[in-house]
Amino acid sequence: MVKTTSGVVVLNASMEPLGIVPLHRALIFLIRERATIVDAVPGRIVRSAEAEFPMPRVVQFREMVRVPYRYGTVPWSRAGLLRRDDHECGYCGRHATTVDHVMPRSRGGRDEWMNTVAACARCNNVKADRTPEEAGMKLRFTPREVTRRDTMILAMAQTGADLVSLGLA
């Protein structure tokens, strides 16, 4: 299934992902000849008053664009944690709806990427106010921080772009 309404991936001249823009913004880049189409939706055409282009999924700037930011860590959130773990329990793999603190909050554990995992209600209740070792439970994976690059790559994948062929995945 090809999604075209979610935007167009924009790459720097070095193929570094810069972000996702609405279709009309990508068309402006193309009309002004600031960018070229790297990947397009097969068989779809977009017409403007100035030109006609294949429906772009990925465009690349012709010249380097200075990026004033780096890919830092995304602030922790419950929704972000559930997305990071794909709504799978960190202990048993079933559907997760709750957040578990590896080091319980009552013992100084905080709401941080490295101290939290998604958990099903059953595992969260079994573990309760203990560490996984004390509860005799084993984590299926090591918690990791979520970066802005992670969220950008996920958003790009939702545009339908072939990230593997672009060398981004």
Task: Label this structure with key terms.
169 residues; alpha+beta; 22% helix; 5 helices; two-stranded antiparallel ribbon; single chain
Write the layout of secondary structure elements.
Elements: E1 8-11, E2 17-21, H1 23-31, E3 35-47, E4 52-61, H2 78-84, E5 98-101, E6 116-119, H3 121-127, H4 132-135, H5 148-157
Oligomer: single chain
What proportion of the residues is helical, as a percent range?
10-25%
Separation, N- and C-terminal Cα atoms: 19 Å
* Main sheet characteristics: 4 strands, mixed
> What is the succession of H and E elements?
EEHEEHEEHHH
Class from helix and strand fractions: alpha+beta
Structure report:
The chain is α+β, with helices and mostly antiparallel strands and 169 residues long. Helix content is 22%, strand content 24%. It contains 5 helices and 6 strands. It has helices spanning 23-31, 78-84, 121-127, 132-135, 148-157; strands spanning 8-11, 17-21, 35-47, 52-61, 98-101, 116-119. A 4-stranded mixed β-sheet has the order 2-1-4-3. Strands 5-6 form a two-stranded antiparallel sheet. The longest helix is centred in the C-terminal third of the chain and has 10 residues, at 148-157. The protein is elongated.
Quick recap:
The chain has helices at 23-31, 78-84, 121-127, 132-135, 148-157, and strands at 8-11, 17-21, 35-47, 52-61, 98-101, 116-119. The chain is of the alpha+beta class and 169 residues long.
